[in-house]
Every structure is written in C-alpha cells, then in structure tokens.
Amino acid sequence: MRRIGVVTAGGDAPGMNVAIRSIVRTAIFHGLEVTGIERGYAGLIEGQVRHLGPRSVSGIINLGGTILKTARCEAIKTYQGILKAGDTLKTQKIEGLIVIGGDGTFRAASELHEASELPMIGVPATIDNDVSGTDTTIGFDTAVNTALFAIDRIRDTATSLERIFVVEVMGRERGFLALEVGLAEGAEFILIPEIEYDLKDICRRLKEGRRKGKTSEIIVMAEGAGNSASLVEQIKRDTGYDVRLTVLGHMQRGGPPTARSRILGNQFGAKAVELLLEGAKKDMVGVQGGRIVTVDLDYAWKVRKEIDISLYRLAEILSS
Ligand code: F6P
C-alpha cells in the first residue's frame, strides 16, 4: 500500500481534526502518502482532493470542526454516487480509505467497499455517540462538557428567579447526550427518545417538589424527545409556574475538543492506519472498557446501540 485517503463526513464533531492529524502523521511515519478528501462524500464524488503532508496538519489539534470540511450528502445514498466516489478513489490511486463520522458515514463506506473492493476503516466521531461497537465517539465528551458549561449558567438564573428551565440538547434520534448531560447537571428530569414520559406525571412531580421546598428545576430534553416549545407551554398551563426554554443548538458541535476527545482522536487515527497496513478490509476502530478495539464496520451502523438505563435510574433517584 502506498497511498491512503481520509474523509470526514456527516455532522462535524470536536476532535475530528485530531484524528486527521494522527492519521496523516502515523501514515507518514510508516512511509505512506495521504490524500485528504474535501467536503465529505460530496467532495469524494466530485473529485475534490488535496495532498496532506505533515505540516498541513500543524496547529489543528485544538480546533473544533474539520479542516477537510464535511457535508450532508444525499448523492452518496444512490448507486450512481457510490460508483462516482469509487472512480475518484481509483483515479487518485487511493488504496485504502479512512472515513471519520457516524453511522450514516459507515453505511456509505460499507457500500463503497462492496462496489470498489477497496479497504475502508471507520473512525467513530459524532456528538450523538450513537455508534455500536464503541463505548464512546470522538466529540461526545466535548459536547457533554459544552452543554454542561451552558446549563450551569442557566442554573444560576433559574435559581435566582425560581424558574423551571427546559433545556433542549442535540440528539435527533438518540438520547446519549441528554442522558449524560442530565446526570452530570443534576437535572430534575431527563427526556430522551428511548424512554416514554408522561407529562401529567412530570407536572405532578414538579408541584410535589415545590411543596417539599424545591424552588427551581432543570429539565434536560433531547431534540428527538418531542417539541420542546409546546412542552414548555403545557407545563406552564398545568403548573402555573414560570417556565423558560433554552435550545442549545449547534454550539454543542463546536469548540476545542476536551482532553478525552483528543486522546481518543489520536488513538483512533493511529489504529485506523495500522489496520490498513495489516490488510484489514472493512472495520471500525472503537474503545471498549478503556481498550482500543476493532469491530466490523457493518456492526457499527446495523446494530442499535442501547442506552445505559442504569444512568437514567440513578439520575431519577438523585434528583428527588
Ligand atoms: O451530528 C449529529 C447532530 O448533531 C444531531 O444531534 C442533530 O440533530 C443533527 O446533527 C443536526 O444536523 P444539522 O446540523 O445537519 O442540522
């Protein structure tokens, strides 16, 4: 193998740049050339590539986002798109591709492998942490801490004005982020798509809490757990309390990666290059119980990752 490619796809995550840097420098250490694909799979289809040398990844270890840029690409979901992407890899003499992203990114990589027969290695990076086969993903720890930083400040004003705040965090499909943020924040309620909730019961418990001396509450809600604005209106109507909504939005995807996200980015990137050198065909790197592991790429996106229900139960007990 002489030349490998690297692409970041889907939503960006803090620490993607760390993984790019690690891939480039590990590859060069082993005598490989690296081609960077720009703008995710859209760039791969359109042939937007650039050579990545050791200096092209200087000064990026602390930067959120991705220097290669990324895209939500519809075309890669079509057979034509897959064929065009495969053509770019062949024209550019790329003999193995490292794809950095989430489940959608890996699904496309798997199809690309079938069509091109080129090796594909996945590096999990998403603030949603919804990738099977790895305990955590690059960027997740950063997003948890970013949301926590924001909600700590919301807590101050909530306490002062004796208000209820509903804070919507990202997670269109899954509640991993909301669950960890909620537990770490000591939120009174955590609403996630995986667990049904009864609004009447929440209002009843809010009123009971006030009778027992609580004066303000934080409700952490995942984007995918319902309509936060209408939830606020319903709580207002039922309880008569002062309720406000904060939607944290895309700020959760930016900012410098935490140490944990950086260490993971370094380890995952280096391991992905090693796998290509060892002749791996279609794998993902991951971390399980603190150890860097290799899992089948298809497992990562085909199998639904379960949330840790014990965290949810613990948060419930501790919020009383
Ligand atoms: O990256 C994943 C994610 O952050 C989801 O949690 C969120 O719902 C979605 O991306 C938002 O995507 P976009 O920026 O494309 O609107």
What does this structure look like?
By secondary structure, this protein is α/β, with parallel strands linked by helices. It has 11 helices and 11 strands. It has a 7-stranded mixed sheet, sandwiched between helices. α2 (40-46) packs across α3 (79-91), α3 crosses α4 and α5 (140-161) packs across α6 (176-185). The longest helix is centred in the middle third of the chain and has 22 residues, at 140-161. It starts with a strand and ends with a helix. The mean pLDDT is 98. It binds 6-O-phosphono-beta-D-fructofuranose (F6P).
Brief account:
It contains eleven helices and eleven strands.
Write down the Rg.
22 Å
**Number of distinct helices:** 11
Between the first and last Cα atoms, what is the distance in angstroms?
58 Å
Topology order in helix (H) and strand (E) letters: EHEHEHEHEHEHEHEHEHEEHH
Bound small molecules, deduplicated:
6-O-phosphono-beta-D-fructofuranose
Class derived from helix and strand content: alpha/beta
Number of strands: 11
Tell me the overall shape.
elongated
Low-pLDDT residue spans: none
Mean model confidence by pLDDT: 98
Report the oligomer.
Answer: single chain
The major sheet is characterized as:
7 strands, mixed
Helix content: 40-55%
